[in-house]
Amino acid sequence: MSFRTKGQDDMEIKNICTFVKAAELGNFTKAAQELGYAQSTVTAQIQQLENELHVNLFERNGKRIVLSASGKEFLQYAYQIIKYESMAVEHFSLSGEPEGELNIGIMETICASEFVNLFQNFSLNYHQVSLNLQIVTTHQALDMLEKGKFDLIFLLDNKISRPDMVTAREYPVDISFFCASGHPLASQKDITLEQLLQEPFILTEKGCNYREVFESEVAARGQTLTCITEIGYTRYIIQAVSRRLGIGLLPAMTLSEALRLGTISLIQVQNYQIRMSIQVIYSNKRRISLPLRAFLDSL
Q1: Are residues 22 and 159 in the same domain?
Q2: DSSP state of 6
Q3: What's the half-sphere exposure (Cβ side, CA atoms, 13 Å) at 85?
Q4: Alpha carbon distances (Å) from 53 to 7, 22, 67, 73, 89
Q5: Cβ atoms within 10 A of the Cβ of 208, count?
């Protein structure tokens, strides 16, 4: 498909797609690799687009490229052109049932909760959709959604607001302290944060958002905490805490099974509670494909 510019040949959609990929990656070589082109092809497509628009889309400094002012302006048009071209093609080739790939970025703690049923139920209902899930951090998820590598992301964080992203659903979540059911703190009520900090902790990896919130509060109070193990694996943390190796801090939704089995107990801390939300986010720069629409409708 092509678009005609005044006094010029048709503007090719493939050139526009190449421009977007190069803009997002900031590198012609990486763009060529992802698109399956030779680097010379990418360079030629960008040059053709620049000749048609009569502007320089990139500022070049050796191998490094950055968008020019005109490039930043055209990028917004490019997203819309690609979005509506894809929508038109999809509209006139509807087969009835959604099919294709759906790429989703998700945090590990969400996968360790009952939310995993959303994905399994979707796969049971839509056999023609290949569901690709990737465990990521908040930063990775937002970056890959912006670059078009994900169709949808599931985050557990404070409220995220970006003009180019849409929050389709939001679910509030408590972040809870817990200990082994036989731990002395299990039978106590209204424990102070200072009391809790006398115990060793088993925490998620550094950079985890709710760990950062907790550590900031500890620092603000002039206190310190002892972390004897850090790992980005929810099940390990729960098992280690149940064996009285330390105190844990995880989203309450991940603790349901261990609480049911009686291996852990929640700890209520005086005047302190961390609350975040699971946010289901997609980009408004790209079209909503049939698989994505079906998934959003299933939430």
Answers
A1: no
A2: T
A3: 15
A4: 11, 17, 15, 12, 25
A5: 22
- How far are the Cα atoms of 57, 200, 216, 290 from residue 131, in angstroms, in the given order? 35, 39, 37, 13
Same domain, 86 and 10: yes
Q: How many domains does the chain have?
A: 3
Polymer length in residues for the chain:
299
Pair (209, 121) in one structural domain? no
Q: Which residue has the tokens 């209520």?
A: 268
Q: Which pTM was predicted? A: 0.75
- Contact in structure between 19 and 52 (CB atoms under 8 Å): no
Question: How would you classify the pairing of strands 165-180 and 247-251?
Answer: antiparallel
- Tokens standing for 241? 């805490």
Q: 165 is in which domain, residue-wise?
A: 100-172+278-298
Mean pLDDT by 10 residues, the chain (299 residues): 52 86 87 89 89 89 83 85 74 71 95 92 94 94 90 95 94 97 93 96 94 96 96 96 98 96 96 96 89 93
Question: How far is the C-alpha of 13 from the C-alpha of 81, rounded, in Å?
Answer: 8
Please give the Cα distance from 199 to 178 (Å, whole number). Answer: 12
Question: Given 34, 64, 91, which residue is the final one in a domain?
Answer: 91
Residue with tokens 């490019």: 78
Q: How many helices (H) and strands (E) does the chain have?
A: 12, 13
Same domain flag for 139 and 24: no
**Terminal Cα-to-Cα distance of the chain (whole angstroms):** 34
- The CATH number of whichever domain residue 247 belongs to comes to 3.40.190.10
What is the enclosing helix (H) or strand (E) of 60? strand 58-61
